[in-house]
Specification:
Layout (H helix, E strand, L loop, with lengths): L8 E4 L4 E4 L1 H5 L1 H11 L1 H4 L1 H17 L7 H44 L4 H42 L10 H12 L2
Antiparallel strand pairs: 1-2
Helix pairs in contact: 4-5, 5-6
Protein name: Caffeine-induced death protein 2-domain-containing protein
Length: 182
């Protein structure tokens, strides 16, 4: 049996704190809405880069900042992207575990059910619904890979010379994974 999951996962988007519970994972509409909120930065990456450039250009005019405007804007946006990717990965991983555990519990109850055919049909129906939910949640892993790859392509088109600092291991891992399409 998989290890017991915590009862909730609190994560923070740029504009709100989301408390993800097992019921959140089982409500696909809510789950997809949360994921959509977290993907806004990825969806508006070019606009975000333009805004970051403007912000750092203003700081440069005021004599504040290190490096070029482009370098600062790219580093700032990269940091935000990595934070969002980490948050979404946490949510998807948590929900994958919650739904997988629920599915295993349903399978165990089917195996332990008495020979009553009506009860077994009912459990099989619930099991089928859980499998559909599981497939939907697992599909989010594929969606995440596509979103990260697309975001990285857009990011690299505007930040051609940017490389995450060697000191930031996690950012380097994301960078290399996105480069390889993982």
């Amino acid at each position: 049996m998989p290890p017991k999951q915590p009862t909730s996962l609190a994560v923070q988007t740029p504009s709100l704190t989301v408390n993800v519970t097992p019921s959140t994972c089982h409500n696909l509409t809510l789950f997809k809405d949360i994921m959509s909120q977290y993907r806004k930065l990825d969806d508006t990456i070019i606009t975000s880069l333009n805004r970051a450039n403007s912000q750092f250009r203003d700081l440069e005019r005021a004599g504040i900042g290190k490096g070029t405007v482009q370098e600062q804007a790219c580093a700032h946006l990269w940091k935000d992207l990595v934070e969002n990717w980490n948050r979404r990965t946490e949510i998807v991983g948590y929900c994958v575990n919650v739904v997988d555990q629920s599915l295993e519990e349903k399978r165990a109850s089917l195996a332990n059910a008495d020979a009553d055919p009506a009860e077994q049909r009912k459990i099989k129906g619930v099991l089928y619904a859980e499998e559909v939910k599981r497939n939907q949640i697992h599909y989010e892993l594929t969606v995440e890979k596509i979103v990260r790859t697309r975001s990285l392509q857009a990011f690299r088109s505007r930040c051609k010379f940017f490389e995450p600092p060697l000191s930031d291991k996690q950012a380097r891992e994301w960078w290399e994974a996105a480069q390889e399409g993982r």
